[in-house]
Specification:
The chain is mainly beta. The protein is built from four helices and 35 strands. The radius of gyration is 21 Å and the shape is globular.
């Protein structure tokens, strides 16, 4: 009886928490609508079958949509004008049965908000990979970051799915996948303008991160590429572009091992690279599997290097086995370097194989907002401090992006209500005040799932955290129909000021990005 209850609690935890903890609330909610074919296992970890809500959809979606003047409940604030972009994987043709949910061609959607009205538009990213697949009429890239599985006709083409994140740069919307250069799209029509965008040939890397940062003072875009010199390379290239697109800095460093470097941290003086044990697994790829597996025997490395330098000063501090994939915010005070991350004790992704064949652990895989601190007054620090800041379990933290590289006070996180019994408390957005260490919540209820949220300031000069928090709610009892919820970011527990209704499912989302009206081209 005890064992059965434990198992039910674990399942409940998976269903209630890991949509957020695995970092894919909206994406997985969409997947939950798809049923696997009878008797066919569509994805496994080394430890067993993946729960249905964590699987890739087995049916293609690909619905490119235009909804003019969406139905709205409440009132869209008059000072909220711009566009909220989202991107996620949406397989163009079927992928390999063992492929993971992170794979699939990128599908970008946009809520265009202006003068109280909202239009919705979505388009597939028509990059090199999409165009090649389209010409062949089949999937040429069937496995996540494993070129050995590609159709021979795809050799030499960019493998980018462009499905992870989006950011505006030089009047383009860049669709990002960290194993390749971006694709550049039109900000208003979502037409793909440049299938493989290399910053006019200046990109000093074969890859480009999904998480560039905007310098809070200069507006420069600071970014990096890992596996920068080719597949399996230990080289990380770090670089900085002006808003006009001029490369103004580049340094290269070597990491201790090839682990997933999904995000990074940038302060006014430093770059932080955090190497985690989701490590490249050649043997697994040789057997037709995905790029990464979780290797419990590997340590983490907290790497830091001076901004603007030649990279030779880079230091890597060895730490305990942990996972940390996304940054909430970061800063240094001249003496110490602080990096706030979502951190779990072990593999946060149930579909990512365990290297030792062990069973995936949903509790060890759950993430909390955690502060990593390095004492810069020591010439060669030998350790970094790890402090969990809040009890909330969640992933995909965000901040007011105007504070990407400077001290910040407020952070946001999709998470279940930490005071409710696991699986019963509903999907929430939390706002954390690091000064008081208190959180306020918006609870969307138990029948909805929430994708990552995004903050839009009330104006370019509004104080930190003054503005709106928005994100897509998937209504699980309405066939996965989607709403955009818009909240006053300073009063989350008042509920939405406006809810924008779509008549159908929205395409899945990994990340989203807000572009204010002043940064959009005139129609
Ligand atoms: Fe990410």
């Amino acid at each position: 009886m005890t064992d059965q209850k434990t198992e039910i609690d674990r399942r409940s935890f998976v269903a209630g928490a890991l949509g957020a903890a695995a970092g894919m609330g909206g994406l997985l909610a969409q997947n939950a609508q798809a049923q696997p074919p009878e008797g066919r296992e569509i994805g496994t970890t080394a430890g067993g079958a993946i729960p249905p809500e964590m699987r890739r959809p087995t049916r293609l979606y690909r619905l490119e949509a235009d909804v003019h003047d969406c139905e709205i409940t409440g009132k869209v604030p008059s000072d909220l004008n711009g566009a909220f972009y989202r991107v996620g994987p949406d397989a163009q043709y079927p992928l390999h049965p063992r492929d993971i949910p992170f794979d699939g061609e990128g599908h970008v959607s946009m809520f265009r908000i202006k003068n109280g009205r909202v239009d919705y538009k979505s388009r597939m990213v028509r990059n090199e990979r999409y165009l090649a697949n389209d010409k062949a009429g089949k999937q040429l890239f069937p496995m996540y970051r494993n070129p050995s599985m590609d159709d021979p006709s795809a050799k030499g083409l960019s493998r980018s799915t462009a499905n992870t994140h989006i950011i505006n740069h030089r009047n383009y919307l860049l669709a990002l996948k960290e194993d390749s250069p971006p694709a550049a799209m039109d900000l208003l029509t979502l037409e793909t303008k440049v299938p493989t965008y290399t910053f006019d040939g200046q990109l000093p890397s074969k890859t480009f991160t999904a998480h560039p940062k905007l310098d809070s003072v200069t507006g420069n875009m600071v970014a990096f590429g890992y596996e920068a010199e080719g597949f399996g390379s230990k080289t990380v290239s770090i670089f900085e572009f002006t808003p006009q697109g001029k490369l103004v800095w580049n340094a290269k460093v070597q990491v201790p091992y090839v682990g997933m470097l999904h995000d990074f941290a940038v302060t006014e003086k430093h770059i932080v690279l955090y190497v985690i044990p989701l490590a490249m697994d050649q043997k697994q790829m040789d057997s037709g599997g995905p790029h990464w597996s979780w290797d419990n025997t590997l340590p983490t490395y907290f790497g830091f290097v001076r901004r603007g330098g030649d990279g030779k000063d880079v230091q890597f501090i060895k730490g305990p086995t942990r996972s940390a994939t996304h940054i909430m915010g970061t800063f240094d005070d001249g003496k110490k370097l602080f990096v706030d991350v979502e951190m779990s004790m072990s593999n946060p992704f149930p579909f990512m194989p365990m290297h030792d064949g062990s069973r995936w652990d949903p509790v060890a895989g759950s993430s909390h907002i955690t502060r990593l601190t390095v004492d810069l007054s020591k010439k060669r620090p030998s350790a970094y401090d790890i402090e969990q800041l809040y009890p909330h379990v969640g992933a995909l933290p965000r901040q007011d992006d105007r504070y990407n590289t400077v001290a910040y006070r407020y952070g946001f996180l999709p998470c279940p209500d930490p005071e409710a019994r696991p699986g019963t408390g509903g999907a929430c957005y939390a706002r954390f005040d690091h000064q008081t260490r208190k959180a306020t919540l918006f609870n969307a209820g138990t029948e909805s799932s929430l994708a990552e949220c995004c903050f839009a300031p009330r104006s370019a000069t509004a104080p930190e955290g003054s503005g709106y928090l928005m994100g897509v709610a998937t209504r699980n009892t309405e066939g996965g129909r989607a709403d955009l919820v818009i909240l006053d970011a300073e009063h989350l527990n008042d509920g939405p000021v406006a809810t924008v209704h779509l008549p159908m499912r929205a395409v899945g989302q990994i990340h989203g990005w807000w572009v204010p009206e002043a940064q959009l081209p005139k129609a």
